[in-house]
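We give the chain.
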Amino acid sequence: MLLMVFPFTFPANYVIDKYGLKAAMYIFSVFQIIGACFRILINVNFIFSIISAIFTGISAPFLLNSLNKVSAVWFLPEDRGTITTVLMFFQINVGNAVGTMFPALWFNWYDVNSDDSDYSQGKHLIFVLVIIQAGIAILNSVLNLLLFKKEPPTPPSFTAQVEREPMSEALLILVKKVPYLLLFFSICSAMAGFNALQSLVSYFVDFGSL
């Protein structure tokens, strides 16, 4: 999934800047639904789980990169920093915490040594888990498609109506800014460490004691 996030960050930014939040949320929701449907077939062949991760990875930048745009379009300038922080907190911290802990708790009582040779009990647990996850993802995506609005009836401030420079021009400006590059690489390093730890947390934490 993470391998797909970086290359699709630039197309996602282009869509958000050129066509707005509604178009980005439409792409995100459609790819989430497709990915969820493929994941349901995990017990048929594991390749479907990989295909699901690809679609989910493609969809992620269309949501993650929209946070600042939501703040800029829907909120007053003095509130945008707080709103962006809150959105990022729930999107990254809460989302990752739930995504990491729930599957571990779900499989906490499962003992592979007591399962049969075909691992039917484990396969059943996986199938029920992905059904729950797919149901939540599809429900959220459908609601997103039906209810999400591109912008409020009236802009919250003058700056919300200001036409931004094209993404290509903005990127050329950014790559010449040393403070931005330092911040960029520090955040990338922090996220890399966080995701590595997230992948290994189930080996370190005894969820049975929770």
Summary: The chain has a mean pLDDT of 80. The chain is about 70% helix and 0% strand. Residues 80 and 108 are 41 Å apart (CA to CA).
